[in-house]
Amino acid sequence: MSKLTALALSIAVLGGVWAFLSLNPLASIALVWVGFIAWGCYFAAGADNAALQKTIAGMVYGAVIAGIALYLVSSGMLGGLGALAAPVIIAVTVFFLVIVAGNNLLSVVPANVYGYAATAGLALSTNTAGNATMMNMTNPVLLVIVSTVLGAVFGMVSGKLAGALGK
Fold first, then answer.
1. Residues 159, 109, 13, CA angle at the centre, nearest 5°?
2. Of 5, 9, 90, 117, which one is least surrounded by beta carbons within 10 A?
3. Contact at 8 Å (CB) between 112 and 58?
4. Alpha-carbon Rg of the chain, whole angstroms?
5. Other beta carbons within 10 Å of 127
6. pLDDT in tens, the chain (167 residues)
């Protein structure tokens, strides 16, 4: 079978498994959509061991930086800035998504951004921005981290399975 067909089949089968797991037994600790973002990031980063490491490190880093931004915004710490508080916090924190790209593990800037965006999006859409310091799975940072790790691993497994099927 062609490499493309093998990859499509591998991702289809494992994508169904991932969806089942994240929507059922892992529903309280994994987000199907974040896992697929990490999965895609793994392939975009090169689909090898370095890509796995950079996807996980970058997305986790981005999630942590987003958590800091969520904490700062929800704490009202810079409330004296009024309507400028959130934009200033976002501007400062996203600066750190890119400036770290000299570090090999954080050199895939899109991974850093995906982790930040997924965490901020989750927190804003579920009203959990204030949970960014909680040590349980209501914390959007922790949910994104778990989903990232699992999704990136599924990406790696789908690549290896496609390699085996394509031979």
1. 20
2. 5
3. yes
4. 17
5. 8
6. 999 999 999 999 999 999 999 999 999 999 999 999 999 999 999 999 999 999 999 999 999 999 999 999 999 888 888 999 999 999 999 999 999 999 999 999 999 999 999 999 999 999 999 999 999 999 999 999 999 999 999 999 999 999 999 87
Alpha-carbon span 166 to 164, nearest angstrom: 6
pLDDT of residue 25: 97
Q: Which residues, including other chains, have CB under 8 Å from residue 80's CB and lie 6 or more apart?
A: none
Q: Please state, in angstroms and rounded to a whole number, the distance separating the CA atoms of residues 148 and 155.
A: 10
Question: At 37, which helix (H) or strand (E)?
Answer: helix 32-44
- How many whole angstroms separate alpha carbon 45 and alpha carbon 167? 23
Closest CA to 150 of 47, 21, 3: 21
Alpha-carbon distance 167 to 165, whole Å?
A: 6
Is 35:18 a contact under the CB 8 Å cutoff? yes
Q: How many CA atoms lie within 13 A of 10 on its CB side?
A: 21
Q: Going by C-beta distance under 8 Å and a sequence separation of 6 or more, which residues neighbour residue 112?
A: 58, 59, 61, 62, 65, 97, 98, 100, 101, 106
